[in-house]
Amino acid sequence: MTCEAEAAPRVTVDPHDLALSDSNVAQLNWYHTSTQPDWPTPYFDPAAELTQETRQRMGGDSHVIRWAERQRAKALHVGTYEAAIHNMLRRIDDQGDRGAQFYLYRVRLVPTLSVRKGWLIDPSNFVGDVVLNEVCSPGTDVARYLNYHEDPGALSLALGRTAIDSTQRVAIPLPSKEKPPWVVEAIGELDSASVIAPAPTGSRPLGRRRMPSPRTNRARELAASLARGLPVNLRWQFESAAAFGDDLVPADWACYVRGVVDLILDPARVLGALDGQLLRQLRAGQSGSGEHI
After folding, report:
1. How far apart are CA 159 and CA 115, in angstroms?
2. Which of 3, 70, 213, 279 has a CA positioned 20 to 30 A from the CA of residue 37?
3. Is the dihedral of CA 100, 281, 49, 131 positive or negative?
4. Consecutive H or E run containing 82
5. Rounded CA gap, 282 and 293, in Å?
6. By C-alpha distance, which of 162, 179, 150 is closest to 256?
7. SS3 label, residue 216
8. What is the 8-class DSSP label of residue 222?
9. What strands, in cross-sheet order, belong to the sheet with 142-146?
10. How many of the other CB atoms lie within 10 Å of CB of 184?
11. How crowded is the C-beta side of 119, counted as CA atoms within 13 Å?
12. Quick one: DSSP state of residue 74?
């Protein structure tokens, strides 16, 4: 009807979603992706890396302390496997995390946790933050919400760190023991393609546009061919993650891109890798607070 995203049709919750049952919430596996190798960190100090100059610009130590308290008050988020992978692609696309190592976490919740009745429309603000005590009253550990942004239509959870019993972690995308045919062919094509870019086009000096090299153009075509086999709402974010530059090694790029595709099209392999990881127990020493991701 209009070009405004706010007025676009919205998805709703599947009435048969297992997570709608309060008793199932703690029995299900939940997932999260992060660039942090120890999510959620035992002792989250959002002000730890602030320089003295930044502290002064924020108004001094008293303002920094209040800011840190607000950061610690934000909820953690977990959701479906699909939502976790979608979150990784979104962060690569619009949060500057291209090239970062991501980790997939399987999250088990405390069996005795208290769940808020019903579910909420996605309560996140424009940067994805949810203040925990605004969705969970005292004595409530978890709030379900309809996720509009990642795996739209699925239920995700806003929760505090004390609701997490244990996690398992694997670095993603997974390395491949053998190179699939697509990877072999892509490496061969890119290795043989020229890295010399055509002369800039345009008649005015300030309007002359630098053209990509044949190798970069071919990499874009290869990525686009893979994207066509993905769910439509993941394609542009996948192509952002698959961005190529002539400074990249073709073999590394091809293996990475194929690995990202496998996260979407071959989840059984990823879940199997998680099965083999040790549990990290979080219930002991629950003094750590919530962490903004």
Report:
1. 10
2. 70
3. positive
4. helix 81-94
5. 18
6. 179
7. helix
8. H
9. 76-78, 155-159, 142-146, 120-121
10. 13
11. 23
12. B
Instruction: Report the alpha-carbon distance of residue 42 to residue 39 in Å, rounded.
Output: 8
* Paired strand residues for 121: 146
Residues in the chain, how many? 293
104 alpha carbon, distance to own chain's centre: 9
Question: Prior bond to 231 cis, omega within 30?
Answer: no
Tokens 């990249």 label which residue?
A: 248
**Rounded-to-integer distance, Cα 172 and Cα 261, Å:** 11
- Please list, in sequence order, all residues whose beta carbon lies within 8 angstroms of the beta carbon of residue 279, skipping any fewer than 6 positions away: 108, 166, 167, 168
Strands 164-172, 102-109: pairing kind: antiparallel
Contact 249, 227 (CB under 8 A): no
* Per-position pLDDT tens, the chain of length 293: 566 766 666 788 999 999 999 999 999 999 999 999 999 987 766 666 778 888 788 888 777 667 666 666 678 999 999 999 999 999 999 888 888 999 999 999 999 999 999 999 888 766 667 888 888 898 999 999 999 889 999 999 999 889 999 999 999 999 988 888 999 999 999 999 988 888 776 666 655 667 889 999 999 999 999 999 999 989 999 999 999 988 899 999 999 999 999 999 999 999 999 999 999 998 754 433 344 33
